[in-house]
Every structure is written in structure tokens, then in C-alpha cells.
Amino acid sequence: MFESLQNGLKSALKTLQGKARLTESNMRExxxxxxxxxxxxxxxxxxxxxxxxxxxxKAVGEKVLLALDPTQxxxxxxxxxxxxxxxxxxxxxxxxxxGLNIFMLCGLQGSGKTTTCGKxxxxxxxxxxxVMLCAADLQRPAAIEQLHIIGKQLGVPVFSKPGEQDPVxxxxxxxxxxxxxxxxxxxxxxxxxxxxxEELMAQLKRIDNRVEPDxxxxxxxxxxxxxxxxxxxxFNDALExxxxxxxxxDGDTRGGALLSVRQVTGVPIKFIGTGEHLDALEPFxxxxxxxxxxxxxxxxxxxxxx
Amino acid sequence: xxTTDLLNTDIRDLxxxxxxxxxxxxxxxxxxxxxxxxxxxxxxxxxxxxxKTDFRGRVVHLTDVIASVKSELRELVAQPLQPITYAxxxxxxxLVVGVNGSGKTTSIAKxxSYFRQQGKSxxxxxxxxxxxxxxxxxxxxxxxxxxxxxxGEAGGDPAAVAHRAVATAIAEKxxxxxxxxxxxxxxxTNLxxxxxxxxxxxxxxxxxxxxxxxxxxxxTAGQNAISQAQGFSTAAHCTGIVLAKLDGSAKGGVVIxxxxxxxxxxxxxxxxxxxxxxxIFDSDQFVDALFEMDGK
Lengths: 306, 296
Ligand SMILES: Nc1nc2c(ncn2[C@@H]2O[C@H](COP(=O)(O)OP(=O)(O)OP(=O)(O)O)[C@@H](O)[C@H]2O)c(=O)[nH]1
Ligand SMILES: Nc1nc2c(ncn2[C@@H]2O[C@H](COP(=O)(O)OP(=O)(O)OP(=O)(O)O)[C@@H](O)[C@H]2O)c(=O)[nH]1
Ligand SMILES: [Mg+2]
Ligand SMILES: [Mg+2]
Known about the structure:
A: 13% strand, B: alpha/beta, two-stranded antiparallel ribbon, 12 helices, elongated, disordered N terminus, binds magnesium ion
């Protein structure tokens, strides 16, 4: 895949050689290939179109650099714009206030919320925080049990209330319990839900209003396709998200949905999940992600001079 | 400011007009509709180009153009009527595989409910010994649905659980045996080899088994699903797909290139989190849904 885009770009951008400046027409073939590659990486179509518009605007009129292969020059411009849109150089990870901090994780079914609760605990415990988990998924069979097992593996207390039907109450009681125990970070594990499920989205809003979490994270599956635009938009409309976490990036998915989600919500990307184990969480690095989404692999290392 | 509003360009206007010239703008709108289903740039581009060749310069209704595209897609994804191939005698063994969180365990609950409704007895094998509470999750479903369940220890060998489940199904003369497996990414060589082993172990007990190997795909998945179909077919010889989570707004269009490339049929779709939220794949409905416009 890396090879084919590079070779394609090389031949598409051959016409640039000997030209003084980049124009829309001498870049057209090359940019079309970049557009296709972004779509193959699952970046939302409208986001791709918007992105290609920006890139063209940036590039037109630039001098063709004699010192560089035209492919590298154009890729450099594309990559820089992609990094800008993904959120620039690494965001500071998580800011904590004094006293109790409440985090809430939300997202579609199976995106990785419960596992990510465990991963965040691992991270926070490393910086000496006192963490507690709250089992607010009263829906999925054995969801509470799953969180308890994760809590036990990490030595983190888990608050749950068997028999309770209302997740708002569970969360409220967990907050009381956390205050009593001088917990510094309480993480709420909510049930997976579809963005179009009005009832469950209203329930999530109720938790948000009554419990007032300090940080709300959207957990997005790294293999998501075009629908990411719509579902992330709906979660952000309902909750005002504070951060994004993309999971399952340990496989061969290019994770282009991350660009869509970032564009639609405008919220910073905090972490990426890279495995099932509870330490497989990494801070987000836009440079690496840009290369991955573009499908250009290592060639990116070479274009830093641009 | 919410960018969602800006991003969802409304293309319904194109359908209202009294027929229009097939020009670049119209072809691009068609392409957009297709790409947004997740069918991928390859199939979407081919369909657009064919429409261009067939209709270029003519005045047509986009609805007519889409009707012709639809009928072709319907043919491509049409299914044989029998969704499950049953064993001639003895238990029918169904192995269920897929990436993490795609909906395997819930789909097993749904299949169990489907078999139970036909009066068939079911033995479940809790072959996910890895994920926290995976066994507990399947146990709850087994209790709710009146199925027998064979469990292993947390962290134990999944092939051993599969072996015991099949043995139990044979001994109890059960009609169906469904084996759950842990979610895994198709790039994880060791875990894919573990699936091959599970497959082999089952085959040693009943030569034709597993009679079905179901790949559960998440309908929200994008182009990576093609790699999933490739990886899981190679390791586990998939015989069919369950397209889970089709009750959301995602179209699941990626099954189109998957059908083209690997000809694995889509057997069922998952339409919710309950055991009864399963439907036999209806290619006409599926193709119609691909072209339902944004915001509905
Ligand atoms: N390979 C990989 N698997 C992951 C990652 N994060 C989570 N998973 C797996 O994805 C599956 C689903 O994870 P969960 O944490 O249960 O997801 P969830 O969002 O809580 O699911 P629901 O509560 O059912 O909505 C599990 O098999 C996890 O082990 C990751 O970064 N990489
Ligand atoms: N809306 C909807 N949710 C579904 C559907 N199928 C499964 N789910 C949900 O998706 C989540 C993951 O489902 P599981 O069945 O646990 O997925 P899995 O593939 O077994 O996950 P792992 O074993 O962790 O790899 C759960 O919250 C399910 O309730 C469906 O068709 N529609
Ligand atoms: Mg969960
Ligand atoms: Mg499972």
C-alpha cells in the first residue's frame, strides 16, 4: 500500500519537474491520489474534500523546490496540514484539579470504553492518583462484572450497585463514596449506545447534568468508517466533549476516522489504545498518526526539510 | 459552531429536479452517496464510471440512475435462501470469530435464540477465556435462552473448551453447538494460529465440522473490514458473515467489496442488543438502505 501511493504520486507529479511554481493543474493528478488514499483510510468524504481544498490553497503558488523530489514537496505540504488539523504537536495529556476529578467515558457499543477505564487507571496510578471506577453500564450482560475484574487486576476500587436501574443514581452515589474515600479521580464507565438512540442519549445527558463530570471522553473504535462524522457529532452535541480516545490502533487499520471526529467535534485527541492489556494506552502523537492515515509510512521521515 | 451541519451536504435536491443532464456534478453526487456507505473508492468509482458511460450527456432522473445501480448491487449481494447449513447428522457446529468488540458474543445469543425458536437444543462453548467477564457474559445469555454452556478457566486454552463443548453436544445429542472466541485483530499472528487450532480440534471430532464459521463484522467498520475478511477467512475459513449493529446509522457498505473479493455471503444482520434483534439478511432491503439519504 505504501509503495503504490508513493509510486503513483511519483508518476502523477512528474510534470512538476522544471516548472517554477505549483499550480492547481500541475498538482491535480497527484492530489487526486492523495484524496483517494484518505478515503481508503476512512476519513469522512466531506472532511476529505474540505481538507483537499485547504491543501490546494496552501500549495498553489509555492515555488517548486529544486532540491527536493516534487513528491516529497507535495507530501510535505499535505502532511503539515494534516498535523495541523489533528491538533498540532502533542497536547498536554490530562489536567487535574485539586480534590475529586470526575471523568466520564462514552461511545458506541464495543468501542473499548470499559477497557479504556482500566487503562486510564493504570496511567493515573503511575502519577500517584487515588482512582476509583464506577460501573454505570447497567445494560450489557456482565458489564459490571467486567469492570470489577479489571479493578481487581489493577487494585483499584470499583463502585457498583447491584439491582439499581438508574445509572444516574449509581453515579451520584459513587461520587459520595469517592469523596468519603479521598479519591482524586473517579472514572464513570457508561453503557455503549448508538448516537441515534434518543432515549439512551437523553440518559447520558442526565448523567452529565446531575453528576457534572470534569472531563468527558469519547472513545472511538479505530476501525470506524464514514459514519464517524455523524456519531461523533451527535455525542458532541449532547455532551460537549473534552477529549477523544481512539482504540484498537494496534492492528492494520489506518484510523482515518480520527481526522473526521477531530474535525467534527473540534475536541483534542488525548490518547490512542494499542492493545487489550491495561497498559496499552499511548499519548496521541499527530506526526505518527498523519503518516499512518496518509498511508505513506516512512517516506515522511524524509520530508522534514520542507 | 457545530461543523456537522456544514458537513452534511444535502443532496436530496438532486432527486427533486425534473430530470437533469448527467454531468460531472451529478456523477460526483452519486459518488459521494456511494462512498459514504463505506463501499470504498474502488466500487464507488466503478459504478460512477459506468453510469457515466451509459448515460453521459443524457437527461435522466437520478432516481432512475440509482434504480439501475441498485438492481446490479442486489444481484451481487443476493443470498441463497438457507442461512445455515446443518449437519446431515449429529450436532451442527458453528464457530464465531471476529475482531474485538464487533458483536460476537451478542450475535451468539441471537443465533441461540433463533435456533431455540425452531425447537433446537443448543450447547454454547465459552471459548473466550481471555477478556474480563467474557464467560460470565455468555453464561447470562445461556441462562436467559435455555442453552447449555461449557466453560473453561480464565486464561485457559480455548481449543480445549471448544473440544469439550463439541464433545458435550455429541454426548447430549444437541442439535447445535456454538463456540465463542475472544476478539482478535487479524494482524495478530499468534492469535490467528490459535483460531486455526480451534478449527482443527473441532474437525477432529466431527470431520465436516465446523459446519459454519461466522465472521461477525461491525456495520460501522470502514475499509479495515476487508482486511478482517481476508485474515479471518485464511485462518478460519469463514462460511458467512453476521453484520452486527446495523440498527445504527452506518450502512455497512463494506460488505460489497467483501462479497466481490471473497464471495463470503452475509447470512444475518444484527439490529439491536436483544437476543431477538437478528434478521436473515435481505439483500433488497440492504441495498435500499444504502441509498437512504442523510439525516433520516
Ligand atoms: N486490540 C485492541 N483491543 C481493544 C483495545 N481496546 C479495547 N479492546 C477490546 O475491544 C473489546 C471491547 O472492549 P470493551 O472495553 O468491552 O468495550 P466497551 O466500549 O466497554 O463495550 P460496551 O460496554 O459493550 O459498549 C474487548 O475485547 C477489548 O479487549 C485496543 O486498543 N486494542
Ligand atoms: N446496537 C447494537 N449493539 C450491538 C449489536 N450487537 C452487539 N451489540 C453491542 O456491542 C457490544 C459488543 O458486543 P459483544 O457481543 O460483547 O462483542 P464481542 O465481539 O463479543 O466483543 P469481544 O468479545 O470483547 O471481542 C455490546 O454492548 C453489545 O450489546 C447490534 O446488532 N446492535
Ligand atoms: Mg463497556
Ligand atoms: Mg465476546
